[in-house]
């Protein structure tokens, strides 16, 4: 059964809008974590980068970056929350770790949050435009 064009448009509106809201919510959560004072700075070294290749031309590759670091004399390895094509094994990286759970790490800085706000805002704006176009029947 084929969905008619209006239903497809409505689904696109919903997906874009929900995506935008989700990205902004995740950015706010990240900023709150950083501001909470529960995360402390440390230096880590990338121990490995695992790549999972997409199954088709349309699928993007997934990259999992693991970092080794020391907190209070104990050595930890955890997955970093970001990836850059400039990363390589043995590279030193700055991290933030949760003082209550040293295996909970993330990259420092608010740049990811700013990008999230901008991207989320664009998605929400696009969703609003699409809603108006949908209502007008275009």
Pick out its properties.
about 40% helix; about 140 residues; alpha+beta
Structure write-up:
This protein is of the alpha+beta class and 138 residues long. Helix content is 41%, strand content 31%. It has two helices and five strands. It has helices at residues 5-35, 111-136, and strands at 39-52, 62-71, 74-79, 92-98, 101-106. It has a five-stranded antiparallel β-sheet with strand order 3-2-1-4-5, with helices on one face. Helix 1 runs antiparallel to helix 2. The mean pLDDT is 81.
What is the element layout, followed by pairings?
Layout (H helix, E strand, L loop, with lengths): L4 H31 L3 E14 L9 E10 L2 E6 L12 E7 L2 E6 L4 H26 L2
Antiparallel strand pairs: 1-2, 1-4, 2-3, 4-5
Helix pairs in contact: 1-2
What's the short version?
The chain has 2 helices and 5 strands. A 5-stranded antiparallel β-sheet has the order 3-2-1-4-5, with helices on one face.
Helicity, as a percent range: 40-55%
SSE class: alpha+beta
Number of helices: 2
Kindly estimate the percentage of residues that lie in beta strands according to DSSP. Answer: 25-35%
Intertermini distance = 23 Å
Global mean pLDDT = 81
Strand count, sense and closure of the main sheet? Answer: 5 strands, antiparallel
Order of helices and strands: HEEEEEH
- Biggest sheet, strands in spatial order? 3-2-1-4-5
Low-confidence stretches: none
Q: How many beta-strand runs? A: 5
Rg calc: 20 Å
Principal-axes shape call: elongated
């Amino acid at each position: 059964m084929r969905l008619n064009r209006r239903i497809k448009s409505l689904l696109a509106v919903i997906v874009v809008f929900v995506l935008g809201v989700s990205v902004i919510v995740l950015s706010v959560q990240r900023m709150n974590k950083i501001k909470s004072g529960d995360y402390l700075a440390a230096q880590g070294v990338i121990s490995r980068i695992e790549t999972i290749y997409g199954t088709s031309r349309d699928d993007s590759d997934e990259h999992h970056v693991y970092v080794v670091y020391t907190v209070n004399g104990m050595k930890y390895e955890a997955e970093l929350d970001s990836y850059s094509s400039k990363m390589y094994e043995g590279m030193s990286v700055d991290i933030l770790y949760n003082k209550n759970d040293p295996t909970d790490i993330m990259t420092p800085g608010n740049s990811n949050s700013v990008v999230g706000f901008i991207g989320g805002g664009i998605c929400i704006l696009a969703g609003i435009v699409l809603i108006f176009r949908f209502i007008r029947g275009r």
